[in-house]
Design goal:
This protein is mainly α. Helices cover 81% and strands 0% of the residues. The chain is rod-shaped and about 220 Å long.
Length: 443
């Protein structure tokens, strides 16, 4: 409803106001330029100077220029109106009737149009129709209202030519007035003596007097022709507006049925009023809630800021105390580490001394083990020779047993055993070698 009220308050401007203003703004300067060119300018020696030498003729030119200014303004406005008629002011209608409540949304669409189109005849007609639907809440009597708007625009167009019609009527009257004044001036001082001496003086005055009428009639004919062209252009604009409104709005909205009673219409209107009131209440409540939420957010932000500052201060204090405690503990740990390091260095010195002693013992043991390993290697070499001798002895025993010379072989074997025993040395630890034992066993 706010959109409808704004559209209604805006209202169309009178069609002739801009043309009348242009007539008085453009007309006198244009007339002054023409008169200067003809009377004192480069056209002063032409035939045009004859038709503008009388004051009444100058007034005719001034009125003609005023009418041209008004018609020029109307022609320019007509071009703007035609351009607006080629613009899609409303969304294209799909052909299906819509509820009357859609008129409010369409008014919102009109308000979003460029500012230069708000004063055109098409937009004013569409706004008037939609405003009627919004105020009535029904499409009943819409056709009568549209016809009324058409008649009003036609009457407004007709009345906008009042100044031009007045000037068109006044110019011939001024021409006749100039002729009367010229004739009066020509014959006012005529005497029989003057007629006898110079008849051309009277005839020249009469010719100059009729020039005012000739100029007035010529300007009137030219002005009527221009008026006809501009009027036809504006009539074409009104016809285009009528066609657009009839195509887009005449059948766009739902019409009440034939059996609708006045009571039902009143109920619908009251329901529409209630719905509009509810919409306003909902909008108001939404605004209040938005304001309340905004205030709550501001208070919450302020409380969060205060808590953040307090928490920051508490954390800073806690961190300072923690840093102090940590510094003290680190100092104690450094002292303990220095003490433990000193003790550990002393123990490591003792351990190094013991390791050196053990290394010396291990070197001696290593030499003894090396010597014993060499002795064992020699024993193993003797055992291998002994095994070879045993095999030889076995063979010899077998041969002696077969030859009957066993006794001689036994003495030879004993001699060989003694020889091996002499070669085998005693071990470093004083234990006799296993070869000596075996030699004794064999003997």
């Amino acid at each position: 409803m706010a959109t409808s009220s704004a559209a209604a308050d805006r209202g169309p401007k009178p069609r002739g106001s801009g043309a009348n203003l242009a007539a008085f703004i453009v007309g006198p300067p244009l007339a002054a330029v023409i008169l200067c060119l003809v009377l004192i300018g480069p056209l002063s020696h032409t035939v045009a100077h004859r038709y503008l030498s009388h004051p009444v003729e100058c007034v005719e030119v001034v009125l003609f220029c005023c009418a041209l200014g008004a018609l020029g303004a109307k022609a320019v406005r007509s071009l703007l109106e035609r351009r607006a008629c080629r613009t899609e002011v409303l969304p294209t209608w799909s052909g299906k009737a819509v509820p009357v409540a859609e008129a409010t949304a369409l008014l919102g669409t009109i308000n979003r149009l460029p500012t230069r189109m708000h004063d055109t005849c098409l937009v004013n007609r569409v706004v008037a129709v939609l405003d009627f639907l919004c105020r009535r809440g029904s499409a009943a009597e819409l056709d009568d209202h549209m016809r009324t708007l058409t008649d009003n625009d036609a009457l407004a167009l007709e009345s906008s030519y009042s100044l031009v019609r007045f000037i068109t009527w006044a110019i011939p009257i001024l021409g006749f007035l100039g002729t009367v004044l010229g004739i009066t001036g020509a014959i006012s001082g005529v005497t029989p003596e003057v007629l006898e001496q110079s008849l051309s003086t009277v005839t020249d005055g009469l010719a100059l007097a009729f020039d005012a009428t000739a100029l007035a009639l010529g300007l009137t004919m030219l002005l009527m022709f221009v008026t006809f062209l501009v009027d036809r252009a504006e009539q074409g604009v009104l016809e285009s507006v009528d066609r657009y409104v009839d195509r887009q709005l005449a059948h766009r909205f739902e019409r009440p049925g034939a059996d609708t009673t006045p009571f039902v219409e009143v109920v619908k209107q009251q329901s529409q009023v209630v719905l509009n009131t509810m919409e306003q209440l909902v909008e108001r409540q939404t605004q209040l809630w938005s304001q309340a939420f905004h205030d709550a957010d501001e208070r919450r932000n302020a409380a969060e800021t205060t808590q953040e500052e307090m928490l920051t201060a508490a954390l800073e204090k806690a961190l300072e105390r923690t840093l102090e405690t940590h510094s003290l503990r680190m100092a104690a740990f450094e002292k303990q580490a220095i003490t433990h390091s000193s003790q550990l260095a002393a123990e490591l010195g003792k351990l190094a001394t013991a390791v050196c002693e053990q290394q010396t013992s291990l070197a001696m043991l290593n030499a003894a083990v090396t010597e014993q390993a060499r002795a064992i290697a020699g024993v193993q070499e003797g055992e291998r020779h002994l095994l070879q001798l045993q095999e030889v002895l076995n063979k010899n025993l077998t041969a002696l047993a077969g030859a009957g010379a066993f006794e001689e072989a036994l003495h030879s074997l004993t001699a060989a055993v003694h020889m091996l025993t002499a070669r085998t040395a005693v071990l470093p630890n004083g234990n006799p070698s296993r070869l000596s034992v075996r030699s004794r066993d064999a003997a």
